[in-house]
Amino acid sequence: LSILLINGPNLNLLGTREPEVYGSATLNDVVTSCTGAAAGAGATLVAFQSNHEGAIVDRIQQAKLDGVDAIVINPGAYTHTSVAIRDAFLGVGIPFIEVHVSNVHAREAFRHHSYLSDKAVAVIAGLGVKGYEYAVEHVARTFKKRA
Ligand code: DQA
């Protein structure tokens, strides 16, 4: 089973960015723990981060060609703005879990709406970077199709 982990804008700054909101773990820490969680469940994981909306759309389209089985995505601020990323998911039909490090519902009103949540398998928000691992474990265990 092949899993793609996508992190959107500013998540390359995890660990130093507003640590009181996002914690002290870095994106590298996240990728390491998710790779381990995937491997532990017999899946493989590829990680991608971009600050650019179009690059994320391209990566989702590529995932279809690569035969990716599931995507775990933290779209960052694009969560609240991007019809293009929503359309990319609809276009490829790959199941995905939406992850937010912070509890977006306890923050500014503009963070309460997501262009993705109604199409996601699940949404995890507010569990810190552990949310990524839980999402990877879930898809690795329940989407078992192929090695
Ligand atoms: C975030 C929440 C978004 O509102 C914000 O723009 C981010 C990170 C989170 O992980 O909590 O960049 O997706």
The class by helix and strand makeup works out as alpha/beta
Strand and helix order: EHHEHEHEEH
Biggest sheet record? 5 strands, parallel
- CATH architecture classification: 3-Layer(aba) Sandwich
GO biological process, one term: quinate catabolic process
Enzyme class: lyase
Function: Is involved in the catabolism of quinate. Allows the utilization of quinate as carbon source via the beta-ketoadipate pathway.
InterPro entries: DHquinase_II, DHquinase_II_CS, DHquinase_II_sf
Keywords:
18% strand; binds 1,3,4-trihydroxy-5-OXO-cyclohexanecarboxylic acid; alpha/beta; Rossmann fold
How would you explain this protein's 3D organization?
It is an enzyme of class 4 (lyase). Pathway: Aromatic compound metabolism; 3,4-dihydroxybenzoate biosynthesis; 3,4-dihydroxybenzoate from 3-dehydroquinate: step 1/2. With 147 residues, the protein is α/β, with parallel strands linked by helices. It has a single domain, classed as Dehydroquinase, class II (Rossmann fold), CATH 3.40.50.9100. It contains five helices and five strands, in the order E-H-H-E-H-E-H-E-E-H. The protein has a five-stranded parallel beta sheet, sandwiched between helices. Helix 4 links the parallel strand 3 and strand 4. The chain binds 1,3,4-trihydroxy-5-OXO-cyclohexanecarboxylic acid. 1,3,4-trihydroxy-5-OXO-cyclohexanecarboxylic acid binds next to loops.
